[in-house]
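Subject: for your reference before the review

Hello V.,

The reviewers asked for a structural picture of the protein, and I figured it would be easier to keep everything in one thread rather than splitting it across files. Below is the amino acid sequence we used in the manuscript, unchanged from the supplementary table.
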Amino acid sequence: QQPAKLPRLCFLTFDPGPLQSTRFGAFFDGLRDLGYVQGQTINIDYLTADGQAERYPALAAQCVRLGADVIVTTTTPATQAAKHATQAIPIVMIGLGDPVGTGLVDSLARPGGNVTGLSQMTPSVAVKRLELLRELVPQISRVLVLSHLSDPIAAPQVKALEDTARSL
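And here is what came back from the structure prediction:
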């Protein structure tokens, strides 16, 4: 009898380094807690752009060639590359920018297509964080915002923060 084919998860990230050293340890721990053990019940391909966003299209194409059953992405550019590479393989984004504003999904209520996941960085949330900071530290006069400008959500977030800062 032929052994059953293991599902294949392709993890596309910006973060350099091996799977074990990533900030996404909780994600992989959660998979393990659900019974997904690398090489036994699932195959995980950890593909990193090593800090070079221009590598995403080739990495997304590699996920398709590998026969991924699901692609997990950690940045908006990675998700855009995966969406461009396939309309058939489910794409799960982990906590990235505004998926509606960047055209990844039609709406939060009805995403459509093959992209789903979590978003935590919409401009309105960034503004709320700044407002909360002002409430917590009323004497604050300067705030430094670090952003990865190759991410399409960066410019709208920075603009929203600048507009809010002017009004505070």
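For the response letter, the relevant points are probably these. The mean pLDDT is 84. The longest strand covers residues 8-13.

Happy to draft the paragraph if you're swamped.

O.
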